[in-house]
């Protein structure tokens, strides 16, 4: 398995601060490995608090000029960046597959998806309108203008190495903010390649800075950003546990926060659903990215009267999924990201079986002539799932579909909402009254109604409850990066 690129210079191993590629201050690196075979194939800067501080300084200095550029000039930078991402999409997809493991077709899809946010916010940059408020008393003019919040720190996960960082950087730059970013330690290279292209797009020095670090350094590095008052916003996608740390530790300087955290998505199949459509929707939502997304259904509730039929149809589809490395055209499920991930999946399946679940397909690691590495897990269907199982409460983050049985609408809504999380929820029903009733009761930020593919740059993505707050994408997506300033002119 080799990584051949049209532009090998997209692979970088340093930090990018104030327009310069540079080693970490301590001149240290950490290894980046390929999850398909566990082999180290690159090095990335192992930054320290000093590097994090340098990045803030650069972003803070660059902010004044960047915010004062006409919106059209900022928009044009984003348009050029978008074009460069598309022009280099094959290389970006290959780098992503190599470090993250996802099949190449999915990586290509993610490049297009991530790029769509850059395109979207290039346009939204032009529409940060204010308001004129009708005067309450004579002789006063009341106005509202929108201003960028300042330096933004973006911290992203490994499951979507390009899309998660693009959908944070693009609105920040569109709003007039400058950025310090840290991608996940497992997948730094895609983000660094994206920054190479941002530099080529003419984004000025200091406006976009990126540093990398190993897992054991991350709290030192990000800690600097959390406590420095020049950083005015933290935007984060990742686990709820880390999101809470960020919220707590940034409180001393009261920063804006956008937190897109863990989910525990319910997927409900009512007795009046189109079962074939529900199976297809579940396949799309559950098995994308090997089940490693925060909107993947984690609990699948199926009405008693269609339970067996649904389980049969689903099992037929799941057992035919092809597991293999990114560079095989027929691979549909790649390796899991690392051994921590695979241990958790295995633990969830074992625990479910001990608590009465039955296995219809999968259930174990795979290692064979095609899936040769240690991180492959067979796509799995479990029936007779119940709420005593770990997988009912905790995201499995893998290709495991547990089916719970229900008998009434009220019962299933209560079960679906009985979680601290509230990112995405899905249900299938052909009863129009039920569709409105259930949509209204779902305690999630996103509801898929007879639909498993919900992500779009044109729509607001984000959660409620302990899945966090803030929205990415859509016309609402820029609000998170802007303050509202009220101007009151008197004595007219
Ligand atoms: P996962 O468990 O899926 O890796 P995490 O929430 O741990 O999700 O990681 C998401 C991002 O948060 C990564 O960039 C990671 O390096 C970063 N991160 C992890 N722990 C901390 C921490 N204590 N402080 C700040 N960032 C962290």
Explain the overall architecture.
The chain has 492 residues and is of the alpha/beta class. The protein has two domains: 274 residues, Aldehyde Dehydrogenase, Chain A, domain 1, CATH 3.40.605.10; 185 residues, Aldehyde Dehydrogenase, Chain A, domain 2 (3-Layer(aba) Sandwich), CATH 3.40.309.10. Helix content is 36%, strand content 21%. It contains 13 helices and 22 strands. A seven-stranded mixed sheet has the order 14-15-16-13-12-18-19, with helices on both faces. Strands 9-8-7-10-11-21 form a six-stranded mixed sheet, with helices on both faces. A hairpin with a 2-residue loop joins strand 1 and strand 2. Helix 3 packs antiparallel against helix 6. The longest helix is centred in the N-terminal third of the chain and has 21 residues. The radius of gyration is 23 Å and the shape is globular.
Distance between the termini: 73 Å
Relative strand content: 15-25%
Secondary structure: number of strands: 22
User: Reading side by side through the largest sheet, how are the strands ordered?
Assistant: 14-15-16-13-12-18-19
Query: Percent helix among the residues?
Result: 25-40%
- Ligands present: adenosine-5'-diphosphate
The figure for the number of domains is: 2
- In the CATH hierarchy, the third-tier topology of the largest domain is known as Aldehyde Dehydrogenase, Chain A, domain 1
Q: Could you give a quick summary of the protein structure above?
A:
The protein is an alpha/beta fold and 492 residues long. The protein has 13 helices and 22 strands.
């Amino acid at each position: 398995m080799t990584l051949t690129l049209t532009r090998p210079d997209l692979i970088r191993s340093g930090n990018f601060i104030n327009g310069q590629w540079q080693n970490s201050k301590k001149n240290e690196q950490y290894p980046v490995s390929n999850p398909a075979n566990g082999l180290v194939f690159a090095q990335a800067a192992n930054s320290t608090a000093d590097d994090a501080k340098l990045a803030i300084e650069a972003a803070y200095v660059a902010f004044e000029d960047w915010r004062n550029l006409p919106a059209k000039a900022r928009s044009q930078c984003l348009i050029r960046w978008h074009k460069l991402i598309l022009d280099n999409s094959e290389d970006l997809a290959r780098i992503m597959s190599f470090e993250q493991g996802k099949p190449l077709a999915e990586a290509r899809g993610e490049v297009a998806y991530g790029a769509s946010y850059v395109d979207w916010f290039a346009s939204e940059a032009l529409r940060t309108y204010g308001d004129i408020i009708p005067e309450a008393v004579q002789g006063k003019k009341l106005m509202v203008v929108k201003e960028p919040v300042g330096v933004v720190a973006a911290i992203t996960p490994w499951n979507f190495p390009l899309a998660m960082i693009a959908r944070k950087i693009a609105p920040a730059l569109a709003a007039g903010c400058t950025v310090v970013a840290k991608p996940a330690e497992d997948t730094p290279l895609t983000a660094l390649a994206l920054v190479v292209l941002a530099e080529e797009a003419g984004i000025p020095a200091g406006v976009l800075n990126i540093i990398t670090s190993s897992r054991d350094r991350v709290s030192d590095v990000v800690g600097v950003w959390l406590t420095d008052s020049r950083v005015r916003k933290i935007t984060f996608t990742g686990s709820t546990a880390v999101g809470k740390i960020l919220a707590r530790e940034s409180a001393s300087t009261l920063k804006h926060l956008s937190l897109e955290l863990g989910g525990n998505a319910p997927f409900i199949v009512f007795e009046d659903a189109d079962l074939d459509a529900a199976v297809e929707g579940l396949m799309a939502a559950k098995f994308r990215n090997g089940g490693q997304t925060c909107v993947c259904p984690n609990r699948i509730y199926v009405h008693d009267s269609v339970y067996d039929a649904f389980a049969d149809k689903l099992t037929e589809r799941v057992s035919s999924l092809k597991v293999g490395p990114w560079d095989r055209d027929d691979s549909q499920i790649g390796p899991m990201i690392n051994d921590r991930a695979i241990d958790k999946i295995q633990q969830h399946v074992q625990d479910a079986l001990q608590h009465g679940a039955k296995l219809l397909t999968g259930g174990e690691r795979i290692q064979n002539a095609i899936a040769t590495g240690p991180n492959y897990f067979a796509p799995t269907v479990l029936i007779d799932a119940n709420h005593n199982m770990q997988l009912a409460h905790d995201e499995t983050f893998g290709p495991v579909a547990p089916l719970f049985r229900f008998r009434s609408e009220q019962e299933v809504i209560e079960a679906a909402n009985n979680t601290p999380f509230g990112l995405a929820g899905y249900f299938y029903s052909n009863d129009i009254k039920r569709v409105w009733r259930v949509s209204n009761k779902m305690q999630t930020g996103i509801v898929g109604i007879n639909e498993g593919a919900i992500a779009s740059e044109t729509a607001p993505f984000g959660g409620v409850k302990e899945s966090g707050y803030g929205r990415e994408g859509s016309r609402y997506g820029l609000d998170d990066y802007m303050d509202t300033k009220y101007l009151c002119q008197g004595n007219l």
